[in-house]
Design a protein that fits this description.
By secondary structure, the protein is mainly α. The chain is built from 20 helices and no strands. α7 packs antiparallel against α8.
Length: 422
């Protein structure tokens, strides 16, 4: 993608991609702010809503590889803009509060529009506009930027929802409908600048004429990636970083059960963690470009594992400021790792023409916790979670993070060795 762009133009492109990344998922994951209102408006149970999200997660897993294949063969601007429009239009259907069977069809549609045609295109777009020496900061800004867009959009939606409900004649369903329209309208509106201003000219011409005329077989491309040990190492490091992040979803319950704080206090603490996303991701991105992406990941995973053990062990006898400090620090570290780990792709010697397929392959490894982590969590915590259960859960997660730290050091040695040969 436009290797001749100036640095300023690259950052403008990155801002556009970040806005697109922050526009599409608030609609799909609006349960994080409006779950009870959704249950009331749609007249469904929590289990039925959970089944819809399980269906969505399964579709994401199934479409990671095809998403990468599409990103290698179609214009990125068309994939990203089309995904934004499709997600918004499906959201307008969602705002009619259809019956459950149609809601499931809506989630299938969202799985395709925000997964199959969107995810790999988003990551590949950033990897191609970022200079090799600035991959870390660009992906840090992507993670931080789309997190800021999501937070601002959610704040606007929650404020609008509260304002509408303050009027006695407005029902929950009517207020929620306006919120859905807001999310859907923003997603559709962002598609226009993406379609017109996203520069993917060189991305579309990165393959030679012969490669376009005679596309390599999918299995041959997968074989090329499978024979790349650095890519496997990067995937396992990313997996360990993502599973460390996954443990933070349990912090609210742990704070209430083990530390005895109220639901309001726990909610305030964990909301504070969300604002660590832009700070942690951007800082880690710059630091990784000044030093080494792999060394920064190794340090973040090791520090995250240590603080998680501290939070789950010694933290049981703490309260107040120490707990807040630990939660914010773990949030800063986990979002920092998320901001950096896609930048490791630049060190894996992957040709641009199969970079989308590499992203799909890495996603299949990296986001495995979305499928297996709930099962592990249920096994360790049981039906009635206790402080001891959470300690076991955090010890297991810390062990995996430490393993990932070691693998990141191994990947660093491989990258340094390959660079010394050039």
């Amino acid at each position: 993608m436009a290797r001749t762009m100036s640095l300023r133009q690259r950052y403008l492109q990155l801002a556009l991609i970040s806005i697109a990344g922050g526009a599409i998922y608030p609609l799909v994951y609006m349960r994080q702010n409006f779950e009870l209102s959704m249950l009331e408006a749609f007249g469904i149970s929590a289990a039925e809503l959970q089944s819809c999200y399980a269906l969505l997660g399964a579709l994401f897993v199934l479409t990671y590889l095809p998403s990468g294949w599409l990103a290698d063969r179609f214009r990125l601007r068309y994939l990203i803009a089309g995904s934004l429009i499709a997600t918004g239009l499906i959201g307008i259907w969602f705002a009619t509060f259809p019956p459950l069977d149609q809601v499931r069809l809506i989630f299938i549609g969202w799985g395709l529009s925000s997964g199959l045609t969107f995810w790999a295109a988003l990551i590949k777009a950033v990897s191609l506009i970022a200079p090799l020496s600035a991959q870390g900061r660009f992906f840090g800004w992507l993670e931080g930027g789309r997190g800021a867009v999501e937070a601002l959009l959610a704040s606007l939606a929650v404020g609008l929802f509260a304002l509408l409900l303050s009027r006695s004649e407005v029902l929950v369903g009517s207020a929620l409908q306006v919120v859905i329209w807001l999310y859907a309208g923003f997603s559709i509106a962002v598609a226009w600048p993406v379609l017109n201003w996203l520069n993917d000219d060189e991305a579309s011409s990165s393959q030679s004429a012969k490669e376009k005329a005679e596309p390599r077989a999918l299995m041959a491309d997968l074989g090329l990636l499978a024979r790349n040990p650095s890519l496997w190492l990067a995937g396992l490091v990313m997996l360990s970083g993502y599973q460390l992040f996954w443990t933070t979803y349990s912090f609210s319950a742990f704070i209430q059960i083990a530390l005895g704080l109220s639901a309001l206090s726990a909610g305030a603490i964990t909301v504070g963690r969300l604002w660590m996303r832009p700070i942690g991701a951007i800082l880690a991105g710059y630091l990784s470009d000044w030093t080494s992406r792999q060394l920064v990941l190794a340090a973040l995973l090791m520090l995250g594992a240590t603080l998680l053990l501290l939070f789950g062990g010694l933290g049981i006898s703490w309260s107040g400021a120490p707990v807040v400090g630990l939660v914010l620090m773990i949030g800063l570290i986990t979002y920092g790792a998320r901001g950096v780990f896609w930048a490791t792709l630049a060190d894996c010697d992957v040709p641009d023409r199969v970079k989308g397929l590499a992203i799909g392959s890495l996603s299949l490894i990296c986001y495995a916790p979305d499928v297996i982590q709930p099962l592990i969590e249920a096994s360790l915590l049981g039906d009635s979670p206790s402080a001891g259960g959470y300690q076991s859960y955090y010890r297991w997660a810390a062990m995996v993070a430490l393993l990932g730290s070691g693998l990141a050091l191994w990947l660093h040695q491989r990258v340094r060795g390959r660079q010394s040969e050039l």
